[in-house]
TrEMBL record:
EC category name: hydrolase
GO biological process, one term: innate immune response
Record bears the keyword Repeat: no
GO (cellular component) term, any one: cytoplasm
Domain RLR CTR: 929-1062
Family matches, as InterPro entries: DEAD/DEAH_box_helicase_dom, Helicase_ATP-bd, Helicase_C-like, P-loop_NTPase, RIG-I-like_C, RLR_C_sf, RLR_CTR, RLR_Helicase
Record organism: Heterodera trifolii
PROSITE patterns given in the database record: HELICASE_ATP_BIND_1, HELICASE_CTER, RLR_CTR
Protein name in UniProt: RNA helicase
Domain of life of the source: Eukaryota
Keyword tags: Antiviral defense, ATP-binding, Coiled coil, Cytoplasm, Helicase, Hydrolase, Immunity, Innate immunity, Metal-binding, Nucleotide-binding, RNA-binding, Zinc
Length: 1114
């Protein structure tokens, strides 16, 4: 194998399209190509018919064979000078690079041609070889080497280099100056003017295009070798971030920033990186962090001293300097007066008892909590003991909302602050300790309770009152339950501190997983009370009339509506889907028979009936996930592209169910426009063409159907108008669900012009489209027609293009609804739990249903007297689930009443017995666990990578929350490396920051995760083999590794839970071994916090209807 072959093989192994890379060196090819070589290359590589046909496609205006045309151009160019000969050489070189990619000899000869620059231009030779390119990962990101083989060619041809030169010069860096000068010199040659004849003008244009292209190529190939990062200060007109330490890869972000500043180059950014905005934001944040970084900060970290754990609250006054405003600044709190039923709700809590307060949505639980907290803090001040309260809320939006409300009533007397995880971690514990009341999410609280850093550490002893908002979540693996478990662990250790008072707030305790068993419902409620250490349940019993004066339950109504009997529109889409599914079957069966994808079985390739929407989404979504691993790229593309089309058609049907067909057509048109750009692969283009042909035929047919339906509607309108407007209003739509929606809204607003209505829907897309449609219905809903008084509110999302809303947009919608600017608000689950939306007269659940608890919360949004709560149910399943939820609600209320009918001592005794029962169950489980562990005692294994590297010994594996398994060997950092995750994610109790890999072979070992503010290496169960190393080892020293960690714990070796000692040792070892990696992980963690912050609104940890599903698309 020659050196050239080795180089080509190395580039291919890196995913580089060698011919595209060579094309960046057109200038060198032109310089060194002789006339004899021109004709030899032309005859050898362009004359063959197969290549000639491909080249003709790129020059469609040329009628003769390309090889002959090039020869004529060469002869013609002789009359116009050497520059024109260079154009001919460049054309030939580009033809060979772009169309001879299946000819290895062409690659070798073109490389040798360009490599003649070795002595004349060492920098160009260095750029050609790429061997010493340290920022190779960014080079790969720039050109998407594996995903789009022609991307490099496209970028170089599209780029307008002249607009970037002044931007790079403003960077004041000598590294960029060299490449900019070279590129600019070529660009100046492209500005030739003055040709007189038509033939001269053609050659002049060709020459200018050549040098402009060479200029772009010179810039693109040279930038990756520029690593100096001195940039302009923040705030200057350049928009660039200020100076920080030089880093590899900054050239990539400087290039992106430069492109962003001019309209000629800005469209290129999305082609290079669809997420360029977020990437630039992350990079700028990274550079600013670097710029302000304190030298040797890792040596100044203070760790928690386990011998100094407090047993009573630390005094907030000792941390008062950390409050945001001076202590002498006084705020006058708003007065409040509890209603009689609210006074009943606070009795037990204000007497210092642990209790669960169960009151309907809209009854003012925040004011109730305010009074409980104020009473608690006031009593502490009067009696001379230190108090601090924490309010735990399940979602991030509630942190700000509840903090603001508490400030409204407590400011001036007490200090209130909120913590959602988006704020700077530095000194956060001291900020909490400065509070009289802090509001936070439970996961932030858990992280701080477990932190090994003094600046982050909190203790349960620091709090005298813990209020759980939406406390029905305190079950199973929810963070609320984890907090209460930590309190139980302290009791088990004979903790000498005083446990905080516990108060839970909820609108619905739920009935558990039971159906109609009152005894099981009672057991569920007693378990919830035991989990929260509640002594009693506080609900309104004696002031029910007063409660009804303020919170009137809306009238519940279920209206079943039918789909159109003959729906030709939907039937046509289903027919198209069936054709696609049939076309996939042969290939899917072949995959299953040959086991090309291990996870796929015969049942997995059977398509369910599309009418069963949940099953269809799950089955096809799972199929799509597994097919990602199919090795054959052509078959993989065919199947995945087919599934994408099925997904679009599936959602088009769902839209058609609830909205006019025009919305379904618009949706399909938008989605299918994404497939209009051809690929450079003929097979891929054929796959796309076949699918698009089906769509084109379907679209034509759907438009005919829609036109016929519009004509039918117009005829119906004329007939009904003749009978009178009243009959005409609500009978035009073919879909009964829309007609019924129009009538309900019309009747409500005709009766009360200033009414408010909430419409609950299932998806963000439906919310947007329905809100838009209601303002387009002229005759049926004139009060909304072109009025801009219908809005929508959906969950927050990092991407507005995905249909999400920012917190500010949500706030504007809530305020508009409250003030009356918005009369109808179409919402998703964001309005279900806790988020404060003004009172309304009408709740419509638009073919949307949840659990009995969600039903109670949604209905509770209708807070006016004589309000309505209506379910429009499109199918029997929805209707039956609603009736089921009503029965469960009635059972829950009856169960609460029965429990409260008991005297206080009896109820308390029942809760204590349940607590003892749960403790015994935990002890039984613990004994079983200890028995199992005894059998595996003394067994030790080395966990080895496939290359033989020892990851760690089994006695250094630890479990985190019984679900995450990490390596706690301080030396493991030296045996491993990492690759930063492009989109770090935040899970329930940890953050994924980076891919963890073997330093020797690069094998994927797992993830670098952040837990308890410390970075730990999580071990992937498939990353290792087990080699037994204890004294009982046999000659069969290697064991088959089970597929799950729980099986390893059951059969191979014991895994201990992680301890503070483990966490501390791993923290210190990372700082000592690789402090730069620690900083990178910290930046990744902060990115994940920001991405996750707004997403918490959609999370519902407990609801069994929200199990993980593989939805197809939206």
């Amino acid at each position: 194998m020659t050196d050239v072959d080795k180089w080509v093989g190395w580039l291919h192994s890196k995913g580089i399209q060698v011919e595209s890379h060579l094309r960046l060196f057109t200038a060198e090819a032109v310089r060194y190509m002789t006339e004899a070589e021109f004709h030899r290359f032309r005859l050898k590589y362009i004359t063959p018919q197969s290549v000639g046909e491909r080249t003709r496609a790129s020059w469609p205006t040329v009628e003769q064979p390309i090889s002959e045309w090039l020869a004529q151009c060469w002869d013609s160019a002789a009359a116009y000078g050497e520059q024109c000969r260079r154009v001919s050489k460049a054309r030939l070189f580009n033809f060979i690079c772009m169309h001879c990619r299946d000819c290895p000899d062409a690659i070798v000869e073109m490389f040798r041609l360009v490599a003649r620059c070795k002595d004349d231009d060492p920098q160009a030779y260095k750029e050609l070889l790429l061997v010493d390119l340290k920022s190779f990962d960014f080079y790969a990101r720039m050109f998407d080497l594996k995903g789009n083989p022609m991307k490099m060619d496209a970028i170089s041809k599209i780029l307008e280099p002249q607009v970037l030169f002044p931007v790079f010069r403003k960077l004041n860096t000598h590294e960029y100056e060299s490449v900019v000068q070279r590129a600019e010199a070529f660009y100046n040659l492209s500005q030739t003017r003055g040709a007189k004849t038509e033939e001269q003008q053609r050659w002049e244009i060709a020459t200018n295009e050549l040098f402009c292209d060479i200029s772009a190529c010179t810039l693109l190939r040279g930038l990756p070798f520029c690593t100096d990062t001195l940039v302009a200060p923040v705030g200057k007109s350049s928009g660039l971030v200020r100076a920080s330490a030089p880093e590899l890869g900054d050239w990539y972000y400087h290039f992106m920033e430069a492109c962003e500043m001019d309209s000629k180059t800005r469209p290129l950014l999305r082609y290079i990186d669809p997420n360029f905005e977020s990437d630039l934001v992350c990079w700028r944040a990274h550079k600013e962090v670097e710029a302000i970084r304190v030298p040797n900060w890792e040596q100044n970290v203070a760790f928690v001293n386990p011998n100094e754990e407090p047993t009573e609250p630390r005094d907030p006054l000792k941390y008062s300097e950390l409050r945001k405003f001076p202590g002498d600044l006084y705020f006058e709190p708003d007065p409040y007066q509890l209603r009689p039923y609210q006074n009943e709700l606070v009795v037990h809590a204000n007497n210092g008892k642990n209790t669960i307060i169960c009151a309907p949505t809209g009854s003012g639980k925040t004011i109730v909590a305010t009074d409980i907290i104020r009473t608690h803090l006031s009593r502490a001040k009067q009696e001379g003991w230190v108090a601090r309260c924490v309010m735990l809320v399940p979602t991030v939006p509630l942190v700000d909302q509840q903090s603001c409300e508490f400030v409204q009533y407590l400011a001036g007397s007490y200090w209130v602050d909120g913590f959602s995880g988006c704020e700077n971690c530095t000194g956060r514990a001291q900020r909490v300790l400065a509070c009289d009341l802090c509001v936070m999410t439970p996961q932030i609280f858990i992280n701080m309770l477990n932190s090994v850093l003094e600046s982050e550490r909190l203790y349960l002893a620091d709090f005298t009152l813990v209020v759980f908002d939406e406390c029905h979540h305190c079950d199973k693996g929810h963070p609320y339950k984890m907090i209460m478990d930590q309190l139980a662990d302290l009791d088990a250790k004979n903790w000498t501190g005083k446990a905080p008072q516990i108060v839970g707030l909820t609108a619905s305790l739920g009935v558990g997983d039971t159906s109609w068993d009152m005894a099981a419902c009672r057991r569920h409620m007693l378990s919830l009370c035991a989990n929260l250490r509640a002594e009693t349940i506080s609900s309104v019993r004696h002031q029910l009339d007063n409660l009804k004066d303020y919170v009137t339950p809306p009238v519940d109504r279920v209206e079943k509506v039918s789909r159109p009997h003959n729906n030709e529109f939907v039937d046509s889409i289903k027919s198209c889907m069936a054709e696609i599914q049939r076309s996939m079957q042969e290939k899917l069966q072949n995959i299953v028979e040959k086991r090309l994808v291990a996870a796929l079985g015969k049942d997995d390739i059977v398509f369910p009936n599309v009418d069963d929407q949940t099953q269809y989404q799950n089955r096809v979504g799972l199929l799509k996930k597994h097919l990602q691993h199919l090795p054959d790229p052509v078959t993989r593309l065919f199947l995945l592209r087919s599934i994408n089309h099925l997904s679009h058609y599936f959602h088009a049907i769902a839209i058609s169910d609830l909205l006019p067909n025009s919305f379904s057509l618009d949706y399909l048109k938008t989605k299918m426009s994404e497939y209009m750009n051809p690929s450079d692969n003929a097979q891929f283009n054929q796959i796309n063409a076949d699918l698009m042909l089906r769509y084109t035929e379907l679209e034509r047919h759907l438009k005919q159907i829609q036109l016929a339906e519009l004509e039918e509607q117009e005829q119906k309108k004329r007939t009904l108008l003749a009978k009178g407007k009243g009959e005409y209003q609500f009978n035009l739509e073919k879909k009964e669900i829309l007609n019924r929606l129009y009538r309900i809204l019309h009747d409500q607003f005709a009766k009360e012009a200033d009414a408010r209505a909430l419409i609950f829907v299932s998806t963000r897309a439906c919310a947007q489209r329905l809100a838009k449609h209601l303002m387009e219905v002229k005759h049926e809903l004139p009060m909304f027609f072109k009025q801009k008084n219908v809005g929508y509110m959906v969950s927050s999302n990092q991407s507005g293009t995905m249909g999400g809303q920012s917190s500010d947009e949500q706030r504007r919608m809530r305020e508009g609804f409250k003030s009356g600017l918005i009369k109808v608000l179409v919402v998703t689950s964001v309005a279900e739990e806790g988020v404060n939306i003004a009172a309304c007269n009408l709740i419509i659940r638009y073919n949307n249903i949840g659990s009995e608890r969600q039903m109670i919360q949604r209905r509770g949004r209708a807070r006016h007297k004589h309000s309505l709560s209506i379910l429009l149910a499109l199918d029997t399943g929805i209707e039956q689930r609603e009736f089921s939820n009503m029965r469960k609600e009635a059972m829950m209320m009856r169960c609460i009443e029965d429990m409260q009918e008991q005297d206080e001592q009896t109820l308390r005794r029942s809760i204590e017995e349940k607590a003892i029962e749960l403790a015994e169950l935990r002890n039984d489980e613990k004994m079983k666990e200890e028995s199992k562990r005894a059998q595996l005692m003394g067994r030790r294994f080395d966990l080895r990578c496939a290359c033989g590297t020892v990851i760690c010994c089994s006695d250094r594996v630890r479990s985190v929350m019984d679900t995450l398994f990490v390596c706690c060997d301080p030396k493991v950092w030296k045996r491993s490396k990492h690759t930063l995750t492009r989109a770090p994610t935040k899970e329930k109790f940890f953050t994924n920051c980076a891919r963890w890999e073997c330093a020797n072979c690069g094998e994927h070992w797992g993830q670098i995760v952040k837990f308890s503010n410390v970075f730990l290496p999580e071990i992937r169960v498939r990353a290792f083999v087990l080699e037994r190393v204890d004294e009982q080892r046999s000659h069969f020293d290697r064991e088959v590794v089970p597929k799950k960690w729980k099986d390893i714990e059951q059969n191979n070796f014991n895994v201990d839970s992680i301890t503070m000692t483990d966490i501390r040792s791993m923290y210190q070892s990372l700082l000592e071994t690789n402090p730069e990696a620690h900083l990178e992980y910290e930046k990744q963690s902060r990115q994940a916090d920001q991405r996750m912050a707004d997403k918490f609104a959609e999370k519902d940890w407990r609801n069994k209807d929200r199990k993980e599903r593989l939805f197809l698309e939206e």
